[in-house]
Amino acid sequence: MAQRVLGTEDLFGGYMRAWQHMTDVARELFGAYGFDAIETPAIEQVDTFVHGIGESTDVVRKEMFRVFSGSLLPEMLERGTESHLKARQRMAMRPEGTAGVVRAAVEHNFVPQGGAPAKLWYAEAMFRGERPKKGRLRQFHQVGLEWIGASDPAADAECIIVLMEYFKRLGFDPDKLHLVINSMGDAACRPAYREAVRQFILDHADEMCEDCIERAELNPLRAFDCKNDHCREVMEAAPKVSDALCDDCRAHYAQVKRYLDEAGISYTEDPTLVRGLDYYTRTVFEVEVEGAGVGAIGGGGRYDGLMELEGGKPTPGIGFAVGFERIYLALQSLGVDLAGEEPGCVYVACMPDQRQAAFSATLALRQAGLRTEADYQGRSLKAQFKQANRLGARICVVLGSDEVAAGVATVRDMETHDQVQVPLSELAEQVASRL
Ligand code: HAM
To answer: What pTM does this model have?
Structure first.
């Protein structure tokens, strides 16, 4: 039997309704904040991610799926490396949404010099070749937004405010959410901080794992997130970014916090929150759910250097993304069903000699916008009623020979079992008024 790839899921039934609900809530809420929807391709040139996310990140080094078109494959196999391919022939599946949206912003000049910021949101599948476990998939779904062209700390605060409002609208109790924030500095102050952390790791090399020693050169800040408990303990004594911020970053961060305080958003500051993508500058944030055991359900931050990395003019930006699968699991652990109820329907049942009348009635009900089902397997009337119940029909329209001859139909309420006869010419209105 054919099986799906490990770490991927089929979305159907209530799970699919939950995903659709997440996108519906996003469309309404983000729309009110002035964000328009965007969809970028699921495959991009490798460089879009390598330049944007960073060559030394786990996402790029270990997790990004490479894509080769069929015609390139024999050549690849012969030479055994992709480095001989032209840059535009090297493709990857998007591991996250930000780099692609910023690439699109550069390509289509969304933020012309002196123009208004571009505000975009997306709901898309992402791909990362991670080891699958609960809440960690190889194909997962994110809802996210990007606000490109705004440097004001109010944009950082509003991003966090809209994120927390989104969680509330999805059914989270705000008291169960744990928002962590930090400032990672910028091009002026981060290089010196990075060097200080590198030196710290090298000074403690005999106490740290091999991955962290490798990180010292590649990406020293990632050592704060090492999976090894002992490394994290050692890193507690490492220099803190909060002590290394330049005056501009310190003032920006202080203003973000003032806005959050004014909006009544509670948060914890964690100077070791560094996130796994290299493009971040200044504000970063992450949200976890108490006791859910699924890791972060969302995260984001500012990326003032990313437009340039993608070949554009210097333009600030900020955004976030949340993970559908983790949100679904976290809400489930809190007893909230993101799927909501199955949509009710109308069922048209008929005697075997009234198929034609059932066809017309079904057509009329659907044209009136009512979700309508009927029998397509020649079942008995009794079996049709059973089917109507299984489908959760709230109303059953019954067409018998006498009724059709008299130009009427029986409309039965499946809950109360009340039934009335209505003229066939008024069927759709009569049914709609009873739903
Ligand atoms: P991220 O923290 O890598 O950020 O991912 C955002 C969310 O996606 C995570 O908090 C998590 O809920 C979900 N997620 C990530 N990886 C997986 C996985 N393997 N399986 C299931 N869920 C996962 C970003 O992707 C940034 N682009 C966010 C951003 C937007 N920053 C600025 N703008």
So the answer is: 0.93
